[in-house]
Amino acid sequence: MSRTVLAALTAAACLGTSAFAQGILTAETAAPNTTPGISIISLSEAAAKAGIADIQVSAGQTLTNSVQNVAEGKSDIAAAPFILPFLMSRGVGPYAGLGAEAGGDLAKNLAVLYTYRISVQGLYAYDSAGISGWDGLEGKTIYNGPPRGAALTNARLLIKTVTGLEEGSGYSGVQVNWGQAVKTIQDGSADAFVLPQAFPDSRVTAALASGNMTVFSMPKDKFDSEVFGKVTNLPGTVAFTMPVADMGYGENVTVVSEDDTFRGPGTVGGDIVNVDMDFDTAKALTAAFIESIETIYHAKSSFMPSAWHGETDIALTDMCGNNPMKYHPGAVAAWEDAGYTLPDCAK
Predict the structure, then answer these.
(1) pLDDT, tens digit, for every residue of 15-67?
(2) What are the tens digits of pLDDT across the range 161-211?
(3) Cα 149–154–157 angle (5° rounding)?
(4) What are the backbone dihedrals phi and psi of residue 215, each rounded to the nearest 5 degrees, phi first?
(5) CA 122 to CA 216: how far, in whole Å?
(6) From CA 302, how far away is CA 136, in angstroms rounded?
(7) pTM for the complete prediction?
């Protein structure tokens, strides 16, 4: 049985009330144990409970492709790091094959229902690998994401920002799809890992069976630098801090920081739809999300309550500036009916 079919069946099994759904929608997301994976699966549960739609979820997808599928009308909903619509709008990076004109036209088809922090990019390694920190990556082999996607783009940028190293000349990169992530972490294919993390991170905790690990904060001087400030100007990237004590790890994980504060680039995104989704459906889906933040979304995993679901402050949503997307008009109506104020630049 394929992972996609298994994920769809798993999502359907947890819904229970899909017999009352009013229609069928399709959705694509990342691995089901990640923030975007849980977010989309939670939306499918909330939509079924409210009698809005039966959402057929395909998990374990590369979100670069999922975003394009929504823009082209091939899927109804997708989880999206906001860097991807930005790159699409310019026809660069993983969308270079589209070109600027076609990419720009496609990006205009995308709209947001709600936002959240997808992850925080960071470095970790097994203690047995002898990695001293960011200054010990030169010449090493680093697993930095799937072959095509926002995670890989962000990992390469973060390593360049902190160390000045380029993949190929300064270190060797290993790219493996998310379904093989834990196996790749455990099998010795790489010396260290620069990957998206939640706190506590499910990939880290699953891989602890092979040994203790150390998670390295971004150095404070690099975090406060002008260079990193330019990185956070990219859509979907925000400066993130968290007390080490709140990260949720046990004694098998050491967190290295100068001052008991973990720092790194937070990757912000959201669940997106095509602008052609009808007003009432977009409004109903968003309203179901708002109603279910605590009862469904936060209940799914220990890291979900800190993932910024329900935030509307642009400092956390990154919905304005260089982000080419706006909230879907139906979503705007749902947020405002629920008593929230959205910035005009995001409407």
Answers:
(1) 433 334 468 999 999 889 899 999 999 999 999 999 999 999 999 898 999 99
(2) 999 999 999 999 999 988 899 999 999 999 999 999 999 998 999 999 999
(3) 130
(4) -105, 130
(5) 7
(6) 31
(7) 0.84
